[in-house]
Input
Amino acid sequence: MSTKDYLEKDYYKVLGVPKDAPAADIKKAYRKLARQHHPDANKGDAAAEERFKEISEAYDVLADEKRRKEYDEARALFGSGFRYGRPGQPGQGGVHFDLGDLFGEGRGGGGAGPGGLGDLFGGIFGGRGRTTAGGARTAQRGRRGADIESEVTIAFTEAIHGATVQLRMTSDGPCQACAGTGAKAGTTPRVCPECMGSGQVAANQGGGFAFLEPCRACRGRGLVVDDPCPTCHGSGRAPSSRTMTVRIPAGVRDGQRIRLKGKGAAGERGGPSGDLYVVVHVAKHPVFGRRGDNLTVTVPVTFPEAVLGAEIKVPTLGGGPVTLRLPPSTASGRTFRVRGRGVTRSDGTKGDLLATVEVAVPEHLDDAAKAALDSYRTATEGEDPRRALMDRAGEINDA
Output
């Protein structure tokens, strides 16, 4: 977005706050509007999505004290005091000029040249283009912050229902001792004479071809430090620690990698922050397991319950037990499905609970139980459950 476009936008109007609104009111207005127009709350509504982007853009400028001050000063100087017309058309008061030329954004598309007003307000808009000593155009852009990866272990129930966790992270950020300049206290860095502050230089390849590469004189920073900061040794970056509250969504899987955009290391020269990737580890549950969006549980049953049929109680995660009806002659290992008692999906629906019955063999029997089993064995002597298995095995061996 051009400097002219920024100055024409009224971020205070976007958030619905007065120009002298305190930071707390700006934050409150942003949160209210963000909830109202968030894409997740307005599925498929392109207008709401565009409005959300506009609200976020306004808050990014007004929430930062330095950027807000520069924005106010720029608008006070140029935002309302000048009226402009398109090339060939008169502006108000008979003035004929293109405001884009004033900021070095002329029709040639070159961007602001050295000393242009685009350079003056580069702190707000992330920097403009510059011209190298050889006449080549370069783009002075902020450097994006690094991505950060962290790990967190949560309980099984937290993975199913969602959880809010605190992460303590150490990442590369602006050096506190020199405020990110890289220069020793009391000194300031100077603009790199090789790249004119862009951090890039044009390398000619012959035949009229050239490409941009990081400036070796300043290592791509656009600034040269003559008296480096003893803490960061002139880099302007140093390790910093912070605690972040992260929302783990319901239904997250073990080993899943969650991306939090813009929550990584801070950028340089107004560049965007990197992303935070959180790898989630889910602790095992003593009763339940998981298969996709379904929960699993093994339910012991007695031999009479499996043979004669019965109604048994089955536990559920986070709720009361449910009654499961076993039909007669239920085989050990058979799985029954309990609808809607599984994992919450992203669309709000739930998976199922898969209950597998397992015939429990008693470790100790009294005399009465042993006598009953002996009677049962005698009554079923003619039945061999392995006969079909042995017959099939013999057929295969004879083939």
